[in-house]
Amino acid sequence: MSDKPVEGIRIYGDPVLRKKSRKVDTLDAKVRELVDKMIIVLKKAKGIGLSAPQIGENLKIFVLEEKFLTGIEGVKVFINPSITEKTGKYLDEEGCLSFPDIIASIERAQSVKVKATDLDGNNFEMVVSDLYARAIQHENDHLEGVLIVDYLSPLRKTLLSRKLRKLAQGVCNES
Ligand SMILES: [Zn+2]
User: Fold this and answer.
1) What's the DSSP call for residue 146?
2) Alpha helices of 14-129 — where are they, by DSSP H?
3) How many domains, the chain?
4) Of the N and C termini of the chain, which has fewer Cβ atoms inside 10 Å?
5) How confident is the model at residue 3 (pLDDT cuts 50, 70, 90)?
6) pTM (global) more than 0.85
7) Closest by alpha carbon to 115, among 84, 161, 73, 146?
8) pLDDT tens for each residue of 128-140
9) Which domain range does residue 58 map to?
């Protein structure tokens, strides 16, 4: 995670991050344009994943940089994703492009089965584990308005409160 927010990424405090995203009805030019933009921002941020609300659109879309997850070059696009199975649990540290400089320890399912649609309109289903499963759960949370701070213990939240306040104020100062 870098300290400086990447241009175009909405930061904690922005209300768009707390809204529930709506389903994509048609894969039209507007959706394609949005996905293109998401991929550009993801690459620029050198992030693992990015959801549509993080660039200001409350639509059920996220993208994952497969290079960091499988070693294979390419960005995977998930449209209208749904996690249909979760198995196991493990704790690990997680960052978020909307929370520069903040790391949270979060318990997630070890493996998930996810269903989604790709940019060509094909439905797909995959079972993934570990970091890949974590990334899917993290991005899927964004589509529900859930953020990494929601998993913090009260103590950790108190310890981070100044940092979080500063982040949220940064948003207010800009607008
Ligand atoms: Zn995130």
Assistant:
1) -
2) 29-45
3) 1
4) C
5) low
6) yes
7) 84
8) 999 999 999 999 9
9) 15-174
